[in-house]
Structures are given as structure tokens and as C-alpha cells.
Design goal:
Blueprint (H helix, E strand, L loop, with lengths): L1 E4 L7 E5 L2 H4 L7 H6 L16 H15 L3 E5 L2 H4 L8 H16 L3 E5 L7 H6 L7 H11 L1 H4 L5 E6 L1 H12 L15 H21 L4 E7 L3 E3 L4 H17 L7 E4 L4 E4 L2 E3 L18 H13 L5 E5 L7 H20 L4 E7 L17 E3 L6 E3 L1 H12 L1 E4 L3
Helix pairs in contact: 7-10, 9-10, 9-11, 12-13, 13-14
Length: about 400
């Protein structure tokens, strides 16, 4: 086995990501809490206490700092901060500010996500993102987050994976559940426009708090690959599901790139992975090179020299050696993109913890295992390995 130096620029973000609803527990005022407890939604299991990170966030940050990471991306809960429309909790704002201060005290740069899939129940009851005044309501929430993000937060994500929000809205309007074997359903166009407008309003609000904060959003990249003769079909399929959201980031300070696998497109649309393909616990094809291809595509669409940050990338598996192999291939593809001139400014793995993956605790993406009864945290070998790369900047490359 040989080692290759990782070509990371100065100030490169090196860390792991989480989302509040997936790790905090008992987010009782959110739309997802209600959905989890609605038999008609057919959710496999509710989040309940999740990882109890609302109370154990210090343990989580201690582990990340000890492991060698320099950055931690976490989200804050709109449903906690504004549990009733127009009523903002000083206690919850102070809680999230303590998290920011705690990260800084441990040498972790906090990247704060303002919205990671969940909304307050009252916002959903109004009609969600497409309701009259929804953009202003989100901007008002962002303005009230000022004590959380300033001072000390260098990067803020406004909305996580807006393209997936639009896809899920499209499913809901059509009365459908679940995803096809390959590809994504068509996103709801009205929701797409709404979340783009909400993002632009949030960017303006964040910059009003502190113009020094780097602000952007994250897009779920499916790594669409055109099979021979399907180039135009692929472009038409990809544009409403991905490219319009990348283009909406023009003028931002960075764009978050999130990718896990690939989607092949044939003349008739998405093509399932081969039957003999290795699959992860989410049934996605094992494809470590996805993130490098996602970075290159995002750079091509956005143009110029927009900074790109990998804000999520990882694998759901019970075999931690395969997790290390996946990260080895993924980071090699990131390094190759950087060497080819793509302006990559950071890499944050998904996820810091085994957590609630939107309906089930079974898909284990975490670098750290969490006991569901005692909540004891146990770093996996992959956590020690990936954290150590932040210090060594030497990536093992297999020669066999």
C-alpha cells in the first residue's frame, strides 16, 4: 500500500455532519414528529430520543475534536426556536448558542444549517413552503437566529437539499409514497420556486447579521450518467431535479455538494443498478467515485470559481472496513477534482453518529456508534482513520 498526499488548500474544512432531528430526540413540535406517529404515514419507527444529542452534544463534540476533526456541521431546529408562530424561545436560542461556543472552545469550526428537512407543525398547517407569506416567515426565523450565528460561525447553510424538499412535495401532491428503483420522482415546480425564494431571502438575512459569514445551501447530487445515446434525456431529467438548484446558488459564498451514489440514465430514463452490484444498507449502489463526479458537475453548472464544500458523503453499512474503503475511494476522487482545478474548500462526512435516517435507525452511516439504550458513544475504526487523515493528509492508496 502506498500513500498519496491529499492536495487540500489552507483552511480546508475537515469534519463530519449531523442534523438536529436525526440526533437530538423529542423534537415534538416538528412536522416529522407528527408524521412519525401517524399510522397512515407508514413510518417504520419514530425518532423518540434519537441519540439524545440535545443533552449530549458536548460528548459528540469532544469525540470529534479528539479524533482530529477541525469542523462540525450541525443544524438548529426551527420547531424548537419558534414552536408557535411568532413566539420565539429565548431558552432554545441560548441552547444553540452554547453549542456554537462549545464547538469553538474545542477547536471545532461550527457550520450551522438553519433548515434540515423539518419545519414547525404550525408552518406545515399553513401550507408549508408554498403558503402565502412562507418566504417572509422563514426570513423572520433566520433573523431571530442572529444570536446563534454571530459571532463565531464562519459558514451557514440556509436550506439542506432543497431539491429533495421539492421531490417530496411532488410525491405528496400526487398521493404517492416511496421512490422508484432508480432515479427521483419529478419535483413539485411550485415548491422549487418557493424554496429558491426562501433561500435568497435567508442569504440576505444572514448577511445583514454579519456580512463576514460565508453563506450558501446544499444540493443533493445524484451523479446522473448518460448511457450511450441518452445524453439529451439525461440532461432533461437532471435539470429540474438538480441543476436549477445549483444555478440558484450563484452569488452565494459557497455551495454544499452532497452525494452518495450514481444514477444511470438510458434512452427511456433511469436504469436500475445491475443485479450483482454491491449495495449499501439503503440499497444504493456502492459507488465511492460519486462525490468527485458531483463536484465536477456542480463546478461545470455554477461556473466561475465558486467554492465548493462536500457537506455530506458516506455509506450505510455494518462492515466498517467497507466504510473505510468507501471513504478511501471518495477522497481519492475529491483529490483528483482538486488537482484538476475544482475549487473544493472542505469535506464533511455523513455522519458523525449512527442516527435516525428518516424512518429507521437501521441504516448506519455513523463514524461513531450509539447504544440505543444507554446512548454510549463508541468511535468506530473508520472514525479514528478518517480523523487521523486531517492530521496526516496522507491517503492510503491500494496497490493490489
Amino acid at each position: 500500500m502506498t500513500h498519496t498526499s491529499l492536495p487540500f488548500p489552507d483552511g480546508f474544512l475537515w469534519g463530519a455532519s449531523t442534523a438536529a432531528h436525526q440526533i437530538e430526540g423529542n423534537n415534538v413540535n416538528s412536522d416529522w414528529w407528527r408524521k412519525e406517529h401517524d399510522p397512515a404515514a407508514e413510518i417504520a419507527e419514530p425518532s423518540l430520543d434519537a441519540c439524545d444529542s440535545y443533552h449530549r452534544w458536548e460528548q459528540d463534540m469532544d469525540l470529534l475534536a479528539r479524533l482530529g476533526f477541525s469542523d462540525y456541521r450541525f443544524s438548529i431546529e426551527w420547531a424548537r426556536i419558534e414552536p408557535v408562530a411568532g413566539t420565539f424561545s429565548r431558552a432554545e436560542i441560548a441552547h444553540y448558542r452554547r453549542m456554537v461556543d462549545g464547538a469553538l472552545a474545542r477547536g471545532l469550526r461550527p457550520m450551522v444549517t438553519l433548515h434540515h428537512f423539518t419545519v414547525p407543525q404550525w408552518f406545515e398547517d399553513l401550507g408549508g413552503w408554498t403558503a402565502d407569506g412562507a418566504v417572509d416567515l422563514f426570513a423572520r426565523y433566520v433573523e431571530h437566529c442572529a444570536p446563534v450565528i454571530a459571532p463565531g460561525v464562519s459558514h451557514v447553510c440556509t436550506i439542506n437539499e432543497p431539491n429533495m424538499i421539492a421531490v417530496m412535495a411532488g410525491l405528496a401532491k400526487r398521493g404517492e409514497q416511496g421512490f422508484p428503483p432508480a432515479g427521483l420522482p419529478f419535483p413539485d415546480e411550485e415548491t422549487s420556486h418557493a424554496v429558491i425564494a426562501a433561500h435568497h431571502a435567508a442569504v440576505k438575512a444572514v448577511r445583514a447579521v454579519d456580512p463576514g459569514i460565508q453563506v450558501g445551501w446544499t444540493v443533493a447530487n445524484q451523479v446522473y450518467q448518460a448511457m450511450p445515446g441518452a445524453e439529451e434525456v439525461c440532461a432533461a431529467y437532471r435539470r429540474p431535479r438538480e441543476d436549477v438548484f445549483i444555478e440558484a446558488a450563484r452569488g452565494d459564498d459557497f455551495i454544499g455538494v452532497q452525494s452518495y451514489t450514481r444514477t444511470r440514465i438510458g434512452p427511456d430514463g433511469p436504469v436500475p443498478a445491475p443485479e450483482d452490484a454491491e449495495r449499501t444498507l439503503t440499497q444504493w449502489e456502492y459507488y465511492p467515485a460519486a462525490v468527485g463526479e458531483a463536484l465536477r458537475h456542480t463546478a461545470d453548472v455554477i461556473g466561475g470559481d465558486m467554492p465548493l464544500i462536500v457537506t455530506e458523503n458516506g455509506i450505510a453499512t455494518t462492515d466498517d472496513s467497507r466504510r473505510i474503503d468507501y471513504y478511501t475511494g471518495a477522497l481519492a476522487s475529491v483529490a483528483a477534482a482538486i488537482e484538476d482545478g475544482v475549487n473544493v474548500r472542505g469535506y464533511l462526512a455523513w455522519s458523525a453518529l449512527d442516527n435516525y435516517e428518516w424512518g429507521s435507525f437501521k441504516p448506519t452511516f455513523g463514524l461513531v456508534a450509539v447504544d440505543p439504550v444507554t446512548f454510549e458513544r463508541t468511535p468506530k475504526p473508520s472514525a479514528e482513520w478518517l480523523g487521523g487523515l486531517g492530521r496526516s493528509r496522507e491517503l492510503p492508496r491500494r496497490t493490489d
